Amino acid sequence: xxxTTLIDRALIRLSGEDVRGFLxxxxxxxxxxxxxxxxxxxxxxxxxxxxxxxxxxxxxxxDVLIDCEREAFEELAKRLKLYRLRRPIVIELEETLAxxxxxxxxxxxxxxxxxxxxxxxxxxxxxxxxxxxxxxxxAAEEPAQGWLEHRLSRGVTEGRAELGSDKTLWLxxxxxxxxxxxxxxxxxxxxxxxxxxxxxxxxxxxxxxxxAEAPGERTRIHYPELGLAVEHRRVxxxxxAIIPSWLAPALSPQTAP
Length: 257
Prior knowledge:
By secondary structure, the protein is an alpha+beta fold. The chain folds into 2 domains: 148 residues, Alpha-Beta Plaits; 97 residues, Beta Barrel (Elongation Factor Tu (Ef-tu), domain 3). The chain is built from 7 helices and 13 strands. The protein has a 5-stranded antiparallel sheet with strand order 3-4-5-2-6, covered by helices on one side.
């Protein structure tokens, strides 16, 4: 069995009447763009535009699967049910599938026709950043190794331990740079403040990955086994933060070469 299963992820299935229309008014990305092999990264925000949950949406016929943190799936499902009201939509844990990942080196990212133990026919490049590798949904196999280090080395943050819950504005999570927000789709929860920040180009703080032997006062979470931490810093005080190529242009002229 291939060691590709992300065991810290869970899947929530939404089925019923106009599931995509329901999500379109809630999440940050444009659900009309969702397709079988085009997943979308998105967030569910507070009214003030702060991140509550981040997740990847997958199309499955008329259904939508939400690829989310396993530790957060119950709270996310509960919040979605609150928004559902009387809509005939079923929101439940999908237990027959799991989220899989493999690194670009194993997937053969440059070969779009590649298949085999490291590449599923239904796989897709991570919608946030191609360098993160391939993801797909299938029955669970052996746990994947190396995902956390691979993701952090690319400067990508995710999950409530890193993004916080009602602590960080969505654009401070680098959502615009990582394809996690639509500025043309219309209203969703938290849209007004998110759009205002974008149009005024006022993203004053960023979540960044930094080398760290111990946690500091700005640390969200420290990974001692990797010597890395996630911190919430002002853009003029990024210091020793990892500034990947996908983020540098957004920080110009402060820190970009």
